[in-house]
């Protein structure tokens, strides 16, 4: 069955104007480690040391992932003495991450992991 979308409920021009932005955001999120970093930041600001202690990443790999997140405008930083702190940048990415966190990371809401197609 196909459903017809009314132009009053679906703005084709807005979709076309923002599809590239959405694709770029999803590309930045399409990495498990970057998702884990962003998920940690949904609870609030964290230092690089805290993130490094919580995730199984080398300092070099963490720096590379944080650089991608900064370049994409998904995180903001502040420096306090020798420490650098990261936080989610307000906007679409933060909204997406809070939704994903509620679905996959919240203790009571976490569904059982699904098997991926083609894997045993």
Automatic annotation (TrEMBL):
GO molecular function per UniProt: DNA binding; DNA-binding transcription factor activity
Keyword tags: DNA-binding, Transcription, Transcription regulation
Stored PROSITE patterns: HTH_ARSR_2
Keyword DNA repair tagged: no
Keyword Transcription: yes
Recorded superkingdom: Bacteria
InterPro entries, sorted: ArsR-like_HTH (IPR011991), HTH_ArsR_DNA-bd_dom (IPR001845), Metal_resp_trans_reg (IPR051011), WH-like_DNA-bd_sf (IPR036388), WH_DNA-bd_sf (IPR036390)
Ranges for domain HTH arsR-type: 14-108
One family name in Pfam for this protein: HTH_5
NCBIfam families: HTH_metalloreg
Protein's name in the database: Winged helix-turn-helix transcriptional regulator
Organism of derivation: Pseudoxanthomonas mexicana
């Amino acid at each position: 069955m196909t459903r017809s979308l009314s132009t009053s409920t679906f703005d084709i021009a807005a979709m076309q104007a923002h599809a590239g932005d959405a694709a770029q955001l999803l590309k930045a999120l399409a990495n498990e480690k970057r998702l884990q970093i962003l998920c940690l930041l949904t609870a609030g600001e964290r230092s690089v040391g805290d993130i490094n202690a919580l995730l199984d990443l080398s300092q070099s790999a963490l720096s590379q992932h944080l650089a991608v997140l900064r370049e994409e405008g998904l995180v903001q930083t502040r420096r306090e003495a020798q420490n650098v702190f990261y936080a989610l940048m307000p906007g679409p990415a933060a909204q997406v991450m809070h939704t994903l966190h509620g679905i996959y990371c919240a203790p009571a809401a976490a569904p059982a992991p699904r098997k991926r197609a083609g894997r045993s």
